Please model this.
Amino acid sequence: MNLKVIFIIAVILSAIALAVSTYANTVTGGFTPTGGPTGVSYDNGNFYGYAFQLPTTVINDNPYGGNTGNYTLINAIAIKYGVVTAVVWFYQPPNGQGGLLSDQNSPMPSTPYDNTPWLYVGTNNSLLGGDWLYYYPPPEVITNALPVGWHMAVIEEYASSGHFYLTLYLDGKYVGTADLFYPSSSILPQLFGSTPNFPANGIDTYPFGFIGVAYADWPAGNGRYFFYNGTIAIVAFYNVLLPDSVINQMWKNSQVMSNGISIYLPMQDLMVAYVFSPSFFNVNTGALTPYYVNNTALHELGIANPDLMLVTSGANLQSNMWAGYSITVNTSGKPSAATTQNWSLITMMIVVIIAIVTITVVFLRRRK
Model:
């Protein structure tokens, strides 16, 4: 066989092997904000735990008439595109509770005067999603008590025909929708920028967003900073409403195992996705780099650095922040975890065979 033909075949097989090898990526991790079931406490106004802060940007134009200024990533996506969708994979332990996603007007550990525990597991062990409209109790969508195990939450907040809505899904199934309507139509949900000069203390924006904690002075909260005592594996943000069929497919095409999860994450309209693993974490800077980022879309939001930053107080950067779960991300929605492992072995074998055959043929031809 001609050496050139052999080389072309080797290149083609290498490309196939590379495609297979990137079909799914597996890491070890899982982020535990409390460092374990008893690793964190709140005492005399001091909180002890781990949380990641979301990137911040400046919104100079709010088409909904709300505030302009500094906003966290969640609010910025909502204001820019009229919708924000978040997908959160988390492990619920016995008596699991705490914040998953939140935003507020002031940094930790100060007490915010405006805050939204956007997605959290309450003291009743139910999953709740809601937004702040300057009346109490705030509008929320609430699930039944969560069973122990892995769960996929999808929360969406969006504007439609002058109204704002929040929809919650759990494990691929629709839970409910809240109509975020204030008696005065000039008041916006906090996620969309509230309203200029409201409350009375002046212009209010929400630059601080967190994963793993929420200031939860809501009915099912703890009245203070509320760290989630389970494990968070993946958080992803989209700038569209995901159809029910896609959300159902995300759950069906994922697999829960005793040692972790293999999840399907659609890439279309994905803004940024974070996989919580030491593989993406810089212990020296406290930064966690994204698993995937749409740089063009984030640059449109004015976000040049999409890294999460670890926020701690009263706690050192310790290894107990990380769980030892296996986390596999598939972007095609087809292979199971076992299939992924098999393909990884096959990929390695293909690469080795290609290398051996190519080197042998070249060596023999040179001897001739």
Observations:
- Residues 28-331 form a domain with the Jelly Rolls fold (CATH 2.60.120.200).
